[in-house]
Amino acid sequence: MLDAIKYPAAPLWTGDFYNEGINRENLFDKLKEECGVFGVYGHPEASHLCYYGLHALQHRGQESGGICTSDGSQFHYHRGMGLVKEVFDNDKLSSLEGAVAIAHVRYSTAGESKLANAQPLVFKYREGDLAVATNGNIVNAPEIRKRLERQGSIFQTSSDTEVVAHLIARSQHDDIVEAVRDALAELNGAYAFLFMTNGKLIAARDPHGLRPFVLGKLGDAWIFASETCAFDAVGAEYVRDIEPGELLILDGAGMKEDRFSPSLKRAVCAMEYIYFSRPDSDIDAVNVHSARKRMGRQLAMEAFVDADIVTGVPDSSISAAIGFAEQTGIPYELGLIKNRYTGRTFIQPSQELREQGVKMKLSAVRKVVEGKRVVMIDDSIVRGTTSLRIVNLLREAGAKEVHVRISSPPFKNPCFYGIDTPDRKELIASQKSIEEIRKAINADSLHFLTKEGLIESIGRLSDEEHGGHCTACFDNVYPTQVPNDEETAAAACGGCD
């Protein structure tokens, strides 16, 4: 067993709690989810449906939540910082009257974590009330914002969503559908939008289909969500995925299917299958849990190692670990346990205690791993600090060997499409070889899933490039134009929603 472990030092968080604001201390060096959107058209309990839908999407954003409803003549809305259960109570939900609603959970990336940026954003413009909620990131938002500011626009938030609202307000068209179409034509990036007025609900998905967006039905009501798991939470039936470049308009006349752009090179975010989406969700009719199990099986075929047990890092790696165990015949065990009740902590411990902070949320099961050769399955390695901490946890618990297997290719490149990623220089896979990473995380062996194995494992029926996925974080091939230098890159994600 190793002597006392010295974890890498990092500055203390500066907010009131560890997951607040841009200086959050990330005890688990994981990529952060983007946001989640949920919408209802034509149900008398629209606000309550949104509440349960947001609960199901809570994994996509934990910093703020909001619901805006329309009773046909005016908006009612409430937004707040924190988890959905902290933002809403029965009285607040009951005050949100109307049969039409849009809702949002937010995780800010480089943007500010404050109430002004919580969504849905609500505006007054010449045609009346407008509410907007989105998941994703507009790559050219900084450029558009500067242009609009020179033309006299005054911004109240640092969110991309407000940029789009200004474009709508400045459109030459009075008709909201045409104004939305004008605004979307100027955007470059990844997004799933919900727009609401007192007469219409409009849904739009980016032309590459980077961000997931699905349509469902509950009785006569239409439901929109970032993931199908939200439909299960409210008892809705999945109808279909919204198509890239599609525009759906709902009003008193029913639902109209339209387009604001032709479908471009399809590029569904591969990380949705690997990590972000809940395992009970389906993306393009592919179940996420099943895809992750296939990734684990493929990883076992590509990088078998003789061992005593297989364990997964909770929660997103459990499915892949099960697949690895099934393929190899090595028993799957709960070698790592996640504490689900830590919530937000308002303490700021000493540096010494903070260095052990990972144990607040994760612990090794000594009686399971002691004296064993362990295969540890994880979904990705970002900076490498978390992998080091977890490998050392297993060694401290008496593991004889720790072999790390990653169910994705090496994460080498930053994302510009709404995922909170470090600069390229902070991504360990862009700076070190696999052998150097192995040494850095203190593992006995290390292997990553190949990109070809990943695409095959996801199993989407597509003859498009990269299987119709965005794999830019692995291969540096971006489906849209992105900034070239790191400074511009940081600005481009400054308002990631």
TrEMBL record:
It holds the Pfam family GATase_7. Mg(2+) binds at residues 316, 378-379. The active site is at residue 35. Binds 1 Mg(2+) ion per subunit. It is an enzyme of class 2 (transferase). SUPFAM superfamilies: N-terminal nucleophile aminohydrolases (Ntn hydrolases), PRTase-like. InterPro entries: GATase_2_dom, Ntn_hydrolases_N, PRTase-like, PRTase_dom, PurF, PurF_N. The keyword NADP does not apply. [4Fe-4S] cluster binds at residues 269, 415, 470, 473. The keyword Iron-sulfur applies. Pathway: Purine metabolism; IMP biosynthesis via de novo pathway; N(1)-(5-phospho-D-ribosyl)glycinamide from 5-phospho-alpha-D-ribose 1-diphosphate: step 1/2. One of its GO terms (molecular function) is magnesium ion binding. Residues 35-253 form the Glutamine amidotransferase type-2 domain. It catalyses: 5-phospho-beta-D-ribosylamine + L-glutamate + diphosphate = 5-phospho-alpha-D-ribose 1-diphosphate + L-glutamine + H2O. Keywords: 4Fe-4S, Glutamine amidotransferase, Glycosyltransferase, Iron, Iron-sulfur, Magnesium, Metal-binding, Purine biosynthesis, Transferase. GO terms for biological process: 'de novo' IMP biosynthetic process; purine nucleobase biosynthetic process. Its cofactor is Mg(2+); [4Fe-4S] cluster. Its EC number is 2.4.2.14. NCBIfam families: purF. Catalyzes the formation of phosphoribosylamine from phosphoribosylpyrophosphate (PRPP) and glutamine. In the C-terminal section; belongs to the purine/pyrimidine phosphoribosyltransferase family. This is Amidophosphoribosyltransferase. It comes from Paenibacillus hemerocallicola.
